[in-house]
Specification:
This protein is α+β, with helices and mostly antiparallel strands. Helices cover about 25% and strands about 30% of the residues. A hairpin with a 2-residue loop joins strand 10 and strand 11. Helix 1 crosses helix 7. It starts with a strand and ends in a 13-residue tail after the last strand.
Length: about 260
């Protein structure tokens, strides 16, 4: 028996995960706030599995006796170029703001500003008082025709779906996220090549976004914590399995564990 622990925010994805957990016979708890005392640890001691914002993990993972697994900030920049197909650097917001060339900039941890292509680094939300020491990824600009979201655990894809098409959500008018058979075969061929590479260090569980570029073929877009990622058409039952792998008892440390805030 496991217990799904959800954030206070009601979303279609969190509701879908709740239904998937219920179908499995799991308990479910939706906390009232992000305070450490928002949940009775005894009420979620049966293998807690978190799904929600990073605030949820930072507030409740330790009181619940678990650690959560996520890709490190160095994972994408250190990925072999054959899988990246572009230059990606780990840097600081201050360095990004000093750039005067067209660059894609993304905050490493929180969505403290919009991830996008900036023609001038000075335009990165200049009105916000964000510390210049905040970590960011600075990437060479490439054009993606199609992006696919994968929920991955132990080097195996558990569920996938089209995510973006030319930068626009791939969800159609009927609420589905369709992907053609040929596209799926291409995506899985690339994903399995990456996951099967014994030289690649990979978190036990994560969301992996991969994409087909206009001129470089398939490459990794980014990786994110599965427990804080949207489903985007992926099967919630399979995503639940991946999130379960990502929530480990505190006595089972991993090199990929999220560090406590502060």
């Amino acid at each position: 028996m496991r217990t799904l622990v959800l954030s206070p925010r009601y979303t279609d994805d969190s509701n879908a995960m709740w239904r998937a957990a219920t179908d499995r016979g799991w308990d479910g708890v939706r906390v009232r706030s992000y305070r450490p005392d928002a949940i009775d640890p005894a009420g979620a001691k049966k293998g807690p599995v978190l799904y929600g914002e990073t605030l949820l993990a930072d507030a409740l993972a330790d009181p619940l006796g678990v650690v959560v697994v996520e890709p490190s900030s160095t994972w994408l920049p250190s990925l072999p170029e054959v899988y990246r197909k572009r230059e990606v650097k780990l840097s600081t917001l201050g360095a990004a703001r000093a750039l005067r060339v067209t660059t894609f900039v993304k905050p490493v941890d929180e969505k403290i500003f919009k991830s996008r292509v900036y023609d001038d680094g000075a335009m990165i939300d200049p009105d916000l008082s964000i510390d210049d020491t905040e970590a960011v990824h600075i990437s060479q600009v490439v054009q993606f025709e199609l992006e696919v979201r994968l929920f991955v655990a132990n080097r195996r894809v558990h569920t996938y779906s089209a995510y973006l098409r030319s930068g626009v959500l791939a969800k159609d008018d009927s609420g589905q996220w369709p992907i053609a058979d040929a596209e799926a075969r291409e995506a899985m061929r690339f994903a399995n090549e990456l996951l099967g590479d014994p030289g690649g260090a990979l978190p036990e569980a994560r969301v992996l976004d991969i994409g087909r570029t206009t001129d470089r073929g398939w490459c990794v877009v980014e990786a994110n914590p599965c427990w804080a990622s949207g489903l985007c058409g992926c099967d919630p039952r399979a995503a639940l399995d991946v999130c379960a792998v990502a929530c480990k008892p505190v006595h089972e440390p991993s090199r990929w564990c999220r560090l406590p805030m502060g």
